[in-house]
Design brief:
The chain is mainly beta. About 5% of the residues lie in helices and about 55% in strands.
Length: about 650
């Protein structure tokens, strides 16, 4: 049992409550603004309970608007930088040829991480790894991260954790922002956000952007190291706040992207042939979230969304045209009495994938579910929480996903413990297949559902300007899906013959001195899995045992900010790399500067100042295609090297 294996090992952190809240504390305010600052609270949406972050039994890491604005100046076109700098969260490139990435939570595979927007699966119940690079952060109000099995809250797609992107709400005064950005690698971004109140109860917001990147062959070998792309996004939202406590919002999203990698014109691969890599993606989504007071019972919550996505891909001579459809609906009732807070409801989700060219990879999932959550306060310092969900999957049967958590807060200390269990409905699209396509994949008749048990213990301390956290975590995954070679030109999928185990810890120290914030972090991950072919075990490829980070930021509201950051990534085992068995350790350094002149800000940002680049050590291109069909090795270090970007932010209206 995971509990027996993990509990002695885990001892953790979480100034979860106090820490996460203090992590968002703005710099000391002027005397006249102190009252307003003290009243500011952070409400977590991802846990359904509607509590302040410091009162949650489950540890939730929250990134507020101040930090989001810093990351917007680094990567205005996607959210990768926002989540990458959270300890225990790793953005991993799954295809260096197309630039796609996913998010590993505490060493677990990125396919287990559920991306949500305002609690809705607007990026699909089984989002592709390219999706992370297509989400602009312009209109985000906060980002919430739950690590570990969250299937009890959000079903099979949240086996490893949840990232909930919470949108900004319109204020009482119209406001807007225009950002223009350019990079030294010939990339450009233009984003717009505007929000207008429509009377006392209604408001609208509009977000849009255009992003482009010219392809780059940095090592001059004829292979594109940085994929080129052009993308536009458009998202209107409508908000309503009722006079009696009801509220609702509607959202629509449209995006269109064309991405290009592969060989340059006139260049061939070692087999003497050119290799084209392209992906065109069109996505439409719509969603609704609402809640209404029900006299004598509590609140009625209704959520619904749909996502339609089409993509056309070329992997050499292999053409793949496919359509993904996802529908989601949920109704729940919540209430509280004394020290008891409860939620109960039902959900229904469908996930359909249909390929016009390779019908064998199609899947059609239908998942009705029932769920409940109860939180019980035991005095002022102790909170017990339990949640459970039963999914009635049309392919993988009835699955129970429970989670138990406890919060204890004596004085400046915060202690949490959590155990969870969940499952994942496998699809053909493991990382290797997303990178190489399905042309060489022999789809097995049936795979078992992947199941996991996760646990964590947290310990945090916060007093005055100092915060400290230590977190220990562990997970056991049964029946993890692995790619196996049949011969030199065919692969298949199979459940691992043993258990995938992860054990690790995180430590974070944060200190604020006047307008300066210092933060240091360290993460240790020991992850192993059964060998895909043959007996024995191996370290999980692409998971470094040691990583660390340091950030120093000076910020003066209304004047600007200056920041420095450094990140260390230790050696990581590699899979099927003909040039090396382990990646080299490396350090990435960056600097950010912004000057604010009224409602105009000028910024400049330098990433990877030391110009660490994987192709300085070994080529990306293989001498032979691997059995899955990929011409490139996995990315274990940056592929873009030093990048300088800068631009201007123009604000309109507002206070």
């Amino acid at each position: 049992m995971l509990g027996a294996a993990v509990m002695p090992f885990l001892w953790t952190t979480a100034a979860g409550a106090q820490d996460a809240a203090l992590l968002q504390t703005p710099p000391p305010a002027a005397p006249e603004a102190e009252a307003e600052e003290e009243e500011e609270v952070i409400i977590v949406e991802a846990t359904r309970s509607g509590r302040r972050v410091q009162d949650e039994a489950i540890r939730v890491e929250v990134m507020g608007r101040e930090e989001i604005e810093e990351k917007i100046m680094m990567t205005p076109g996607n959210i990768s930088m926002i989540v990458a700098e959270t300890p225990g969260v790793r953005v991993q490139v799954t295809s260096p040829a197309l630039g796609s990435s996913n998010v590993r939570m505490q060493g677990m595979s990125g396919r287990y991480t559920q991306l949500l927007s305002d609690g809705l699966p607007l990026f699909g119940g089984q989002p592709s790894s390219i999706g992370l690079m297509q989400i602009p952060p312009t209109d985000l109000g906060q980002v919430e991260i739950i690590k570990g099995a969250a299937s009890a809250l959000y079903g099979p797609s949240a086996l490893g954790g949840v990232i909930n992107l919470v949108s900004k709400r319109p204020k009482s005064i119209a406001e807007g922002e225009l950002l223009l950005n350019a990079t030294s690698r010939d990339g450009q971004d233009a984003t717009f956000y505007g929000a207008v109140p429509l009377g006392a109860q209604w408001g609208v917001s509009l977000t849009g952007g255009y992003h482009q990147q010219r392809w780059q062959d940095l090592d001059k070998d004829g292979w594109i190291d940085m994929a080129g792309y052009d993308r536009w996004t458009f998202r209107p939202r409508l908000f309503w706040d009722g006079a009696e406590g009801g509220k609702a919002f509607l959202t629509l999203g449209l995006s269109d992207e064309n991405r290009k990698g592969g060989t340059l014109a006139g260049t061939v691969m070692p087999d003497g042939q050119p290799f084209t890599l392209t992906r065109a993606t069109r996505r439409f989504d719509a969603g609704m979230v609402s809640e209404f007071p029900v006299k004598g019972l509590g609140k009625l919550h209704l959520r619904a969304s749909t996502t339609h996505q089409r993509h056309r891909q070329m992997f050499g001579l292999s053409r793949e045209n496919a359509r993904t459809l996802s529908y989601f609906a949920e109704a729940s009732l919540s209430g509280d009495s004394g020290g008891t807070n409860w939620v109960a409801g039902a959900a229904y989700q469908t996930d359909d994938y249909h390929s016009k060219d390779y019908a064998a990879v199609d899947y059609h999932y239908r998942t009705p579910a029932l769920f409940a959550q109860v939180e019980q306060e035991m005095g002022d310092a102790l909170l017990l929480a339990g949640s459970a969900r039963v999914d009635f999957h049309n392919v993988y049967g009835t699955r129970l996903s429970p989670r138990l958590s406890i919060l204890y807060r004596p004085g400046p200390w915060t202690m949490r413990a959590s155990l969870g269990q969940g499952f994942y409905a496998p699809t053909p699209f493991v990382d290797e297949i997303e990178a190489a396509g399905v042309a060489r994949l022999v789809v097995p008749d049936r795979l078992k559902a992947e199941t996991a048990k996760t646990g964590s213990l947290d310990l945090g301390y916060a007093t005055g300007p100092l915060e400290a956290n230590v977190t220990l975590f562990g997970s056991d995954i049964d029946h993890a899906v692995q790619l196996r070679a049949i011969d030199a030109a065919r692969v298949t999928l199979a459940n691992a013959s043993g258990r995938t185990r992860t054990r690790g810890g995180e430590a974070m120290l944060r200190y604020r001195w006047n307008d300066i914030v210092l933060r240091a972090s360290y993460v240790f991950v020991d992850a192993s899995e059964p060998q895909p072919e043959g007996a024995g075990r191996r370290a999980v490829p692409g998971v470094p045992k040691h990583s660390a980070g340091f950030i120093a930021m000076w910020e003066k509201h209304g004047r600007g900010r200056i920041g420095f950051e450094a990140y260390y990534t230790g050696r990581q085992p590699l899979d099927d790399n003909p040039y090396r068995a382990r990646g080299k350790p490396y350090v990435e350094m960056g600097m950010l500067g912004e000057i604010t002149l009224g409602k105009v800000s000028l910024f400049i940002n330098a990433e990877n100042i030391l110009d660490v680049r994987q192709t300085k050590y070994n080529p990306l291109v293989r001498r032979l295609r691997n059995p899955a069909g990929a011409w490139t090795v996995d990315a274990w270090a940056p592929t873009d090297g030093f990048v300088l970007n800068g631009g201007i932010r123009l604000r309109f209206g507002g206070a």
